[in-house]
Structure formats: structure tokens, C-alpha cells
Amino acid sequence: MLAEFLADRGEWAQVMPGARACLFSLKEGPASLPLRLDPLHFEALFCLAGAVTLTRRDGVALRADARQVLLLTDLSGLAGARVETPLEGILVAVDARNARESLNTICRLLGGLALDTGRVRRWMAGRGGCAVEGPGHWSRAAFADLDRLPHSEQARWCVWKSVELLYLLSAPERAEADTAPALEGEVVRSLADTRQYMEEHLDEPLTIPVLSRRACLSTTAFKAGFRRLYGLPVHTWLRQRRMERAAQLLRDSSLSVLGVAQSVGYGSTSQFAAAFRRQYGVTPAQYRKNV
Fold it and tell me: Which value, to the nearest 10 degrees, does the dihedral of the CA atoms of residues 229, 180, 173, 102 take?
């Protein structure tokens, strides 16, 4: 998607077999992106300025702002994508087949490091093939170090950080992923239905007991199954989705900050503002002013 859009707009470098990076700065106005990404290809955008907004087929928007990393593995669930200029950043484009030997070499150099790419695929699939990383400890450190590097080293750095992010996404629950039995089809459907219910009722109190009863599962089975299928604990997933919806409302609606807070299940602006700041690094009012 972004690789095609930036084909003749940026400064490309082949960093290693199967992985190339593009340093770019776009000044022209907002533009639509082509919704094309070849199988076994993925993209990681290290956004330095501007934003990229993705619109899913269910109408939910996902936005990557400055100092965040946009990850793309599957565009089939998208209805549209746009860049908001001036957009500046570094795009890492990877052909997984051609990059396999490079990754194996890196893993050998690190003492036989193993990457559970299957877990990463499941994690991305649980987010519809599109995810935003940051702001968090990892992204803040990555961008802080990127700022200190000379221009000539930034492409190589972002490819290396993409490999590091791949490791972080694959490492935490590897033992569980290797030993746990596969989820049955009926359980997967039940969890998917419950996730959709959560999407449609973000303004309501959603507790584990209520959700597990709706999924016809014990609370333990519901929490474990949800985390396996979508890569995050239920409360973490719910908090992130509420903040993403809140950001959308702050951008696209005239609701007050209190109105936005209530629309995503918060009764007070102080609790909402604290949660929003943890995810986006600014208060809701500052976010609205910036966009």
C-alpha cells in the first residue's frame, strides 16, 4: 500500500535481502492510498509527522499519528486509507519469503534466537491485519534514538527496530502458544461475536463475568481464549479500542470532551483524560487542537 504510493516519492534503500526502507517527506495535500499489499509482504511505517487514517469496512477508523508505528499485513478488511500531509517518516517494506534467510542469520548471530512468526500472524489477524504501536516505552525509545541518528543510518535503524518489534510481539507467550490446544471453531465464533458486541457497546460497562456469560464460556476460558485469539488481555484490548474510538470522535465530531468520555464508557473526564494520555501522549483537548 504505502510502498506503492511512495514508489517514486521517497529515497529508497535496500537494507538487507527482502527488506528495504524509504525515507520520505510529502508536502502535497491529502491523498487516498491504494489498497494493495502482496501476500507475504508487510509494511511498518515509522511516522515522524502527519498521519495515516485507515477506515475499516465496519466504519471504524484506525489512525497512526506522529511518533507511532503503523503495521500492515492484510488490507482485505479496509474500505479506504488516506494520508494527511505534511506526512514525513520512514517506511519499512518486507517481502517475507526473500527476508527469511536474513532473519535466520540475525537469529543465529543472537545465539539461536527463535521468532514465533505464527503468533505474530495471529496477533495481526486479531486486529484485521492493521495495527498501531505506541505511544509506549518501546516506541518512545525507538523514536528518541532515531532522532539522534544521522540521515544515512535511519533506514537501517528502522529495519532493525522492525525485527526487534517482531521479536517482542512473538516472545511473551511462546510457551503457551506452542502447548495450548487449538481453539475449537464454535469457541472462535463465540469469541468473535462477543468481540463484535464489545465494539458496538463501548459506552456501556463491560465486565468479564457479563462477557463470558454472553460467550457461553467460563471466565477463565473466556479470558484465555480471547487473549489467544486476539493477542491481548480483554481489558487491554477494550481500553485500546475505547481510546481509538475516542480519538475518532475528537477528530470527527463536535461532542465535548465529557461527551466523548461518556461515549466510550467513562463517567468522568479525569479518568478518561488519564487513560487517553497513556495511549496517545497528550490530553484529549490537546489532541483535538492538534488535529
Answer: -90
